[in-house]
Specification:
hypothetical protein tt1634; GMP Synthetase, Chain A, domain 3; 620 residues; 5 domains; 16 helices; alpha/beta; eight-stranded mixed β-sheet; 29 strands
Length: 620
């Protein structure tokens, strides 16, 4: 454009390229109004700048405080006998501010020097000092607090030397700058305080979260150990507090462990309890329950106390179901894993698997759901049989090869031990050696001659032990036992005499014999003169009385009801009386015996089968 030409007005061009004038005044007004609504450009950056400053402060402030705390800790490391130490000086850091606290007033020079050295720490903003005063405290307080940020020592100590020692001890567990010393010097510490304070610190400092206090002579601790080893160490320590101090009710929370698994294993060494258990109280209940339900097994406890069991599960009921199942196996393991119960093992009982499975399902808490069971039947080894006679009962245990053998044994007991209660715990199983049931029968017959005793068979070994009433019987048993067993078996017998009762006079002797003849008469088979096989207890009782009678004469009279003039009946009665005298003599009865048979006349065809025995005693 030539300089002589007029400039083109500011505007816009139309679609044909022609310029269109604009309202310049209106546009300028709009721009002025918009500038009033819009902030200046520099103000737009203020929020971001504030955010950056906050982030920087968040990142820088902790680092500054940590550095100040570290440097203050170095200043606090003074000699225990220095004036600063004797004043109980401690440094409390709050951000960039430091407070110097002493228990006694510092000399002006020392106070100024300490404040100056503290103020020289980089980034320190404010330093203050104050004296709290040296006082007598009762009860004397001390506290340890352990957290993930360090250890805090609070309360009081009796002297600066102990204070320095406690700070040094705490620094063995965390960096020195993470030990916060809030201790003050005071009077009133009980004897043994130093040992108790060190003990409390040593017990709790290894943990990550714990708190403990000393109040006079009472120690109390709260802690949450992270693992079973730490929990056990704390519990053991708190059971052995220093002499002269007592433990309050501590709150030591077991660690939380998942999965929560508890086991009970039966093996040749007894019952092993392992895995996790919810509390120490339950540990006592479970071990007592095991000893009650499995009394023949020694209990080994390696359980660890822990949290983590589902609250809906009855742990004690689960343990009871486990012990009942293990009582029916020879070897096995019961396991509670979270909400699932399992049992594996071996049983010798032929019908044992179904019985075990049924009982487990009946006794297991419903919250556990269906159990996992794996039980196998195996031959019994060793194959054992036990019979014990004591206090009017016969107890049977161990194995037999069939239900028929079991019925035969029970029938024999009914014959040889009449009137005695039978406690039957026999189980049918495989694995018996040849001749086992014959030896068991012979041993039971011999046991009927014992006052009290026991038969024990294990594979091809027989042993009889117990008490007998007189030496002659003991000698006879010792001779007979070796002949009971087949070749290759071993047999042993161990006998001891029954303690003799006091002697009685002839009159009381007669009364006692009459009483035993009435309550427990010696029985005879029809037409037989020899006593029945089951008469042994009655003969033993009568012989024991005669042995107490001393020098007496005893006329044994047996009465039979028969037709008048029956010589055969008279001879049978006399024969029975003579058989009684022979049996009593064999059992150590040494009285002067005479015998008599008496026939009580009855109508023909009305003869009695048993008869009646009478003992007539006279002094010599």
């Amino acid at each position: 454009m030539d300089r002589g030409e007029e400039p083109e007005p500011i505007g816009s061009r139309d679609g044909a390229g022609q310029a269109t004038p604009l309202d310049t005044e209106g546009e300028a007004g709009q721009q002025r109004r918009a500038s009033k609504r819009r902030p200046a450009g520099w103000a737009l950056g203020l929020p971001a700048l504030a955010l950056l400053a906050a982030v920087a402060a968040m990142r820088i402030s902790p680092a500054i405080e940590i550095n100040i705390r570290r440097e203050a800790a170095r200043l606090a490391k003074h000699e225990p006998d220095s004036p600063l130490a004797r004043s109980g000086a401690r440094f409390a850091v709050d951000g960039r501010d430091v407070r110097i606290v002493t228990d006694t007033e510092l000399p002006d020079g020392l106070r100024g020097e300490t404040e100056a050295r503290t103020g020289a720490i980089p980034a320190v903003r404010l330093v203050r000092s104050e004296a709290t005063g040296y006082v007598t405290l009762s009860p004397f307080p001390f506290a340890v607090r352990r957290s993930d940020t360090g250890i805090v020592l609070d309360g009081a100590v009796p002297d600066a030397k102990l204070r320095a020692a406690l700070v040094e001890q705490a620094a063995r567990y965390v960096p020195a700058d993470q030990v916060e010393d809030r201790l003050r010097l005071a009077a009133g510490a009980p004897d043994g305080f130093a040992e108790a304070a060190r003990f409390l610190l040593a017990t709790l400092a290894p943990l990550s979260l714990a708190e403990g206090t000393l109040s006079g002579r009472t120690l109390q601790a709260n802690a949450s150990p992270e693992d079973p080893a730490s929990y056990n160490a704390v519990m053991l320590a708190l059971r052995n507090v220093p002499k002269g101090f007592s433990g309050a009710e501590h709150d030591i929370r077991p660690p939380r462990i998942t999965p929560f698994v508890w086991t009970a294993r039966r093996d040749g060494g007894g019952l092993a309890l392992g895995g996790l258990i919810p509390s120490e109280a339950l540990r006592l209940e479970v071990t007592r329950l095991a000893a009650t339900m499995l009394p023949s097994l020694p209990v080994r406890d390696s359980m660890q106390t822990a949290r983590g069991l589902d609250r809906s599960i009855d742990f004690l009921a689960s343990a009871r179901a486990a012990f009942e199942a293990l009582s029916q196996v020879q070897r096995g393991e019961a396991q509670l894993a979270e909400r699932r119960f399992s049992l594996s093992g071996e049983t010798v009982a032929r019908n044992g698997v179904a019985a075990i499975e049924r009982r487990v399902r009946e006794t297991l808490p419903h919250a556990l759901g269906a159990p996992m069971l794996s039980v196998a039947v195996v031959p019994a080894s060793p194959f054992v049989f036990r019979a014990r006679r004591v206090e009017g009962r016969v107890e049977l245990g161990g194995y037999l090869t069939s239900d028929g053998d079991r019925a035969a044994i029970l029938g024999l007991i009914g014959t040889r031990f009449p009137g005695e209660k039978v406690v039957d715990s026999l189980v049918t199983a495989d694995g018996a050696p040849d001749g086992f049931k014959e030896v068991a029968r012979a041993a039971l017959e011999t046991l009927s001659d014992f006052a009290e005793g026991e038969v024990a068979l294990a594979d091809s070994n027989l042993r009889l032990t117990g008490q007998v009433l007189y030496p002659q019987l003991a000698a006879r048993i010792r001779r007979s036992v070796p002949a009971m067993v087949p070749p290759g078996w071993r047999a042993g017998v161990e006998l001891e005499p029954v303690q003799r009762l006091d002697a009685v006079d002839a009159h009381l002797c007669g009364d006692l014999l009459s009483d035993v003849a009435r309550r427990n008469p010696v029985r005879f088979a029809p037409g037989e003169a020899a006593p029945e096989a089951g008469a042994t207890p009655a003969l033993e009782a009568a012989a024991e009385i005669v042995r107490r009678c001393g020098r007496v004469g005893i006329r044994v009279v047996h009465h039979i009801a028969a037709p008048a003039g029956s010589e055969a009946a008279r001879d049978l009665a006399a024969g029975r009386a003579g058989a009684l005298v022979t049996a009593l003599s064999e059992r150590g009865a040494t009285a002067r015996f005479t015998v008599e048979g008496v026939v009580a006349p009855v109508a023909a065809g009305s003869a009695g089968a048993q008869g009646r025995t009478e003992f007539i005693v006279t002094p010599l």
